[in-house]
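> run fold MFS transporter
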Amino acid sequence: MGRDFRRLFTGTAVSALGSEISELALPLLAILTFHATAEQVGVLRAAQFLPFLLCTLYAGVLVDRMRRRPLMVAADLGRFVVLGAVPLLGWAGLHRMEPLYVLVFLAGVGTVVHQLADQAYLPTLVDRDRLLTANGRIAAAQSGAELSGQGIGGLLVAWLTAPVAVAVDALSYLVSAFAVAGIRTPEPKPVRHHATPLRRELFEGLRHLAGSRLLRPLVGEAATYNVAYQVFSLGLLLWLARDLRLSPVVIGVVLGLAAAGALAGALTGARLSARYGFGRTMLVTMAIGNSAPLLLFAAPGGGTGVAVLVGAVFIVAGFGTALANVHNRSLRQSAVPDEIRGRVTAAYRLVSWGTLPLGSLAGGFLATELGAYGACLAGAAGIAAATLWVALSPIPRLRETPAYV
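> ok
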């Protein structure tokens, strides 16, 4: 892949691992060091994700107006400074939640900018015929981080305290910044549209997304999947923990098997696509991943049998979903002109992630009305139905990743 891709890969892998560590360490820091209430921990989680709703479209314009590599470096350095200040609050005895909310929100802004710039920047380093392989390697690194990150975070919290675990996350962004800063491949100068009003640029990504025969089914599938998955995951957790009384350790191990399946799937995408065709591979692997939760309709009464079945479901779902997502990301990168890639990525993220609160509300309602197991099955059916967006689109007929269409 070349030296510069390896630098980008290193930065992505290290920062992903740090983020997974912090996913556990931040709420534990709030609970153990800041003595936060349950409501305050909920607000902290909201502060982490609020930038994805408030800043995504603006960040997409920024990514298209500026060179992407300096933006990624600046976002990494910003996250290093902001998260580095979090443990300092604890060590200084300033145990108020309000500064923590602000710091976590600012770190989320940096994450939004970095992720959009990262996806838009990769095609600059990798030829179109190697884009699928590159995305597969990046997805494998992210799956590895998911598989080990929270476990490492738990060990760091247990051995060295939560503030130290957050400090490790901050350092990961510094490592990422140095890795990306060392990339030497020239980046094309962004196309300037000085006369274009900001409002028009903000919504250009949404217009392109709505008008593309390849991107519309992708974002439809993602939005449907995210709503249904929130219902499924909420029902599943309530069913396993409250109704079946499985221990937190067993639940954590079982759900973590998804990352093991995802790691295997991310590493095999390019070979399968070359053999069976891009679109067909994407559809089949998506159908496998999205249909796996339906196996829970055959769940036994309880105990070890349920744990084994749920573990198998998550391995299969992780494998198929990771493979499909590698193809999804490659298609979105190759089927969009470079000058608006940041805005289209932002629009995609806004629509697909904007459904998460709706899914959470629906999950709570269905769990109340149908019971935990009923909500779990309703979510599983919705996840499977999401595949229809791609099955009924032109995507399955694609032999390879297209140029802009």
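The two ends are 26 Å apart (CA to CA).
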